[in-house]
Amino acid sequence: MSQAVLPAPALPSVRLRLRHNAIVDRLGTLGMAAAVTLVIIVTAAVLAPIVAPYDPNDPDLLNVLGMPNAAHWFGTDALGRDILSRLIWGARLTLAGPGMVILLSTIIGTTLALTAAWFRGRVDTAISWVLDVMFAVPGIVFALIAVALFGPSFGTVVAGLTIAYIPYVARVVRGAALRERSLPYISAAWLQGQRGISITTWQLLPNLVPLIVAQAVSSMGFAVIDLAAVSFLGLGVQPPTADLGLMVKSGFDSVLRGFFAESQSAGTLIVLIVLCVTVIGDRLTASARSPK
User: What does the alpha-carbon distance between residue 63 and residue 40 come to, in Å, rounded to a whole number?
Assistant: First the structure.
């Protein structure tokens, strides 16, 4: 009597290959190029104490506004500080600040959106009204109000921008949650006696994760621009801390003297980060909204 032969379980290498192919399919060639570039920037920022050739705040008054050379690949600024080292350290705050803004706003916005979508009625109306009022105020205005109340600092700007980005997340998630809530699997879970918080956490939320992640990544680029703009105005990170927005501002005086390296390199890195994040966000958003 012959025995049925069971298929062999997928080997780890096969699983990794399938997962890699899925990521490539979602991002595409341009998205993968943007992801690789962003990973390189993030890695350099994380390893700044190791990869930065100089102390970013160490001045060298004998080498002020030095041109690019073997010792200083991007030259030196008006205080003789190595521009490449300041770019690497500055990328830390340029990525960490918006990252904190998006993380906090996504958690709060998703919570509000799920609450509004589940209870509906007056709760939905009240939350939607508050979100509409917040949505009418530009994000940078919230940051400026926070600075006016608590003084210029990195934490103050992050808190102000977090409040500003909550409605962007909440409106998208709320619309998707309302659509999901009307599907049969939610009604089936309700009829089985599951509690609302259990259905929302274990049934509704997992199906919204791809859209939430896509929205968070897409918003990251705007957060980078807003944080850099506030730093450029001198209301965020304070000198001598290395920050890309602050480097663009501090390099303006040097531009009038014919030295473009500081402002140009910092501005280019900001644009590159925003471009990479935007491309990845667009690919993830298209994938999240495409029919399964």
Answer: 29
Contacts of 259 (CB under 8 A, 6+ apart): 65, 75, 251
The dihedral formed by the CA atoms of 109, 110, 111 and 116, expressed in degrees to the nearest 10 = 90
Residue environment code for 115-133, b if the CB has 16+ CB neighbours within 10 A, otherwise e: bbbbeeeeebeebbeebee
| CA pair distance 219, 167, nearest whole angstrom | 11
Query: Collapsing DSSP states into helix, strand and coil, what is residue 82?
Result: strand
Candidates 268, 289, 206; CA nearest to 74 is: 268
Is residue 234 within 8 A of residue 152, CB to CB? The reply is: yes
Strands (E), the chain: none
Token match 């916005």: residue? Answer: 109
- CA-CA distance, 234 to 249, in Å (whole number)? 8
Give the tens place of pLDDT for each residue, 86-144. Answer: 999 999 988 999 999 999 999 999 999 999 988 888 888 999 899 888 888 887 888 88
Q: What's the average model confidence in pLDDT over 21-49?
A: 83
In this structure, what are the phi and psi dihedrals at residue 291, rounded to the nearest 5 degrees?
-65, 140
Alpha helices in 47-82 (DSSP H): 48-51
In sequence order, what are the beta bridge partners of 82? 76
Nearest C-alpha neighbor of 43 from the set 9, 88, 7, 5: 88
Integer Rg of the chain from CA: 24
Which residues neighbour 58 within 8 Å (Cβ) at sequence distance 6 or greater? 81, 82
